[in-house]
Amino acid sequence: MTASQEPKVSVVVPVYGVEAYIGQCVRSLFSQTWDNCEFIFVDDGSPDNSISVLEGILAKEFPGQQSCVKIIHKSNSGLPRARMTGLAEAKGDFIIHVDSDDWVEPDYVRNLVEKALDEDADVVYCDFYKEYSGKKPKVCMEGDVDPATGPVAVKCMHNSIIRGYMWNKLERRSLYDLQSMFVPVHGYHEDLVFQTQTLSKARKVVHLKEPLYHYRRRRRGALTSSSLIKTRKESAENMLKLYDALPKDSVPIRACGEDILLRGGWYGACILNFKLLRAHPEAMEKLLEMDYIRGCRVPVSKQRFTKFICRLIRRADKKVS
Questions:
Q1: Are the beta carbons of 96 and 37 closer than 8 angstroms?
Q2: CATH for 9-217, among 2.40.40.20, 3.10.180.10, 1.10.101.10, 3.90.550.10?
Q3: Considering only CA atoms, which of 169, 175, 177 is closest in space to residue 206?
Q4: Contacts of 118 by beta carbon, 8 Å cutoff, 6+ apart
Q5: DSSP secondary-structure letter at 181?
Q6: Which residue ranges make up each domain of the chain?
Q7: pTM for the full predicted model
Q8: What are phi and psi of 168, to 5 degrees?
Q9: What does each C-alpha distance from 164 to 68, 97, 191, 198, 225 come to in angstroms?
Q10: For residue range 83-116, what is the model confidence (pLDDT) as tens digits?
């Protein structure tokens, strides 16, 4: 198969504040053994020299890749919008996402694409390395999807059998409906929101049992109570707004609607954010109606607490009315 016959792969890379790391990322991308790639870098108003480092490496070390690279500059609007900007420019048969502070193996794209072609799969996901500064990397193995369909895969993802990361999944571009898909408001769990909508539509999902991606675990300091509250609040909003946005007869809702609700409800309840839960009355009522579900990511003890908080809110609202 010649380069012109190979399926094109669009690699979407949002860039923000990664001056110290982007060099390793782009060198690994520009050294891919799959020739038919386009690399779309979205500068999300990065305040440092990340883009200058990228441009310097491209000009000096990989001048032959110039025609395959597109750099889009935009004002800062957060990771989800940066991702959508890159997706809107993608022309490939397949899409894959890479975080600009990580790096990949030379055969990352090739092995994923060849697995997709061999298996006639819409999605291929791989294992990965978790990289720690000054420590030996840890190989993280993903679970298997059985049967290998999109609805089963998205259910597995919401229950941590496979991870919700976007960067270890090659997906057909046809799975992305940019005109109708819900775009997460915040960065926390944004990958889960995107993947819920794309993965669920796949005919066939295949696991490539090979670590090809290096996920850099950067120390950002201790997790304070205020940052934990912020994380939970933004995750709850993303999940509950996703539930509200999806048609109730859609594949994602049928496959994992209860999981979306449980996660969003728990995140809102555990930080006692009554205002947030009140903003999603349909979701709150559904949570109250649901039976307890065993064996899912949100354990029954947390489901009980979520229902307790929802009942408190409903009781308080009835007194006011």
A1: no
A2: 3.90.550.10
A3: 169
A4: none
A5: S
A6: 9-217, 225-320
A7: 0.93
A8: -110, 25
A9: 28, 12, 6, 11, 25
A10: 999 999 999 999 999 999 999 999 999 999 999 9
